[in-house]
């Protein structure tokens, strides 16, 4: 089946930020009106942060919205590298402070062996996800699906029954020193109702458009199908 991805180009990051927040709000509001609750999966990174800040001040039935993460570095929640910290600092303020949050880490020393516990915690909001916000690295990774990573096979296995998978990424300039992570799996992405991929910069756009089968973002695109929308700004 051929899928058509909606690709939107913005002249400024500010306009992307505002439209992305409204895009997310519209789809969360629809889920709330249909089912009385909604789930929002967030990614880390410098690009989504301003989007979450804008979203935090939008009127929504936030007490019935539960927020989780697409992936997380295996660090304490107050670590500067933590995606949880970024989301709490940017989204969980103003009106969105009333939402609920599910962490993606445990007290375990490693994500390997902690996947069953995190899977159980995430089941209520990933069956399926209403709205997922993703980013993409210059190496073509998305979520914590890094090429050649330990655990990538399980994370991108269409038959994986767990909703999360542990990852040990190869140490690169992109990963930095923190290589152990937890990530959502491909079947979760495939069932998500709405996915927004936010990319910025000409280099990332070229990586995205290459459709290199070795790039995890290609696997994500195939799994997401028509659920995927891309917002791009140079």
Structure description:
With 234 residues, the chain is of the alpha/beta class. It has a single domain (13-233), classed as 3-Layer(aba) Sandwich (Rossmann fold). The chain is built from 8 helices and 10 strands. A 7-stranded parallel beta sheet has the order 1-10-9-6-2-3-5, with helices on both faces. A 3-stranded antiparallel beta sheet has the order 4-8-7. Strand 2, helix 2 (48-55) and strand 3 form a beta-alpha-beta unit. The radius of gyration is 16 Å and the shape is globular.
Mind sketching the topology for me?
Elements: E1 6-10, H1 13-35, E2 38-42, H2 48-55, E3 65-69, E4 71-73, H3 83-90, E5 100-101, H4 115-122, E6 131-134, H5 152-155, E7 164-168, E8 180-184, H6 186-191, E9 194-200, H7 202-210, H8 216-224, E10 228-233
Parallel strand pairs: 1-10, 2-3, 2-6, 3-5, 6-9, 9-10
Antiparallel strand pairs: 4-8, 7-8
Helix pairs in contact: 1-2
Q: Write down how many β-strands occur, each being a DSSP E stretch of 2 or more residues.
A: 10
What is the average per-residue confidence, as pLDDT, rounded to a whole number?
Answer: 95
Helical amount: 25-40%
Q: How many domains comprise the coordinates? A: 1
Order of helices and strands: EHEHEEHEHEHEEHEHHE
User: What would CATH call the class?
Assistant: Alpha Beta
Query: What percent strand?
Result: 15-25%
Q: How many separate helices?
A: 8
* Global Rg: 16 Å
Q: Span between N and C termini?
A: 31 Å
Quaternary organisation of the protein chains = single chain
Gross morphology: globular
CATH topology, what is it called?
A: Rossmann fold
Major sheet characteristics: 7 strands, parallel
Runs in which pLDDT lies below 50 for 5 or more consecutive residues are: none
Structural class: alpha/beta
Strand order of the largest sheet: 1-10-9-6-2-3-5
The CATH architecture designation is 3-Layer(aba) Sandwich
């Amino acid at each position: 089946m051929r899928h058509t991805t909606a690709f939107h180009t913005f002249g400024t990051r500010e306009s992307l930020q505002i439209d992305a927040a409204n895009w997310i709000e519209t789809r969360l509001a629809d889920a709330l009106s249909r089912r009385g609750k909604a789930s929002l999966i967030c990614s880390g990174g410098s690009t989504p942060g301003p989007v979450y800040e804008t979203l935090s001040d939008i009127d929504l039935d936030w007490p019935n919205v539960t927020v989780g993460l697409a992936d997380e570095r295996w660090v304490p929640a107050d670590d500067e590298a933590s995606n949880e910290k970024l989301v709490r600092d940017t989204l969980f303020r103003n009106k969105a402070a009333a939402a609920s949050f599910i962490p993606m880490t445990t007290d375990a020393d490693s994500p390997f062996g902690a996947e069953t516990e995190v899977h159980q915690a995430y089941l209520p909001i990933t069956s399926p996800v209403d709205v997922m916000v993703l980013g993409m690295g210059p190496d073509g990774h998305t979520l914590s699906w890094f090429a050649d990573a330990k655990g990538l096979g399980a994370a991108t296995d269409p038959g994986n029954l767990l909703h999360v998978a542990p990852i040990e990424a190869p140490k690169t300039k992109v990963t930095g020193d923190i290589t152990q992570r937890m990530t959502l799996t491909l079947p979760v992405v495939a069932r998500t109702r709405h996915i927004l991929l936010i990319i910025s910069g000409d280099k990332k756009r070229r990586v995205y458009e290459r459709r290199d089968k070795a790039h995890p973002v290609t696997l994500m695109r195939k799994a997401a199908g028509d659920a995927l929308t891309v917002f791009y700004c140079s």
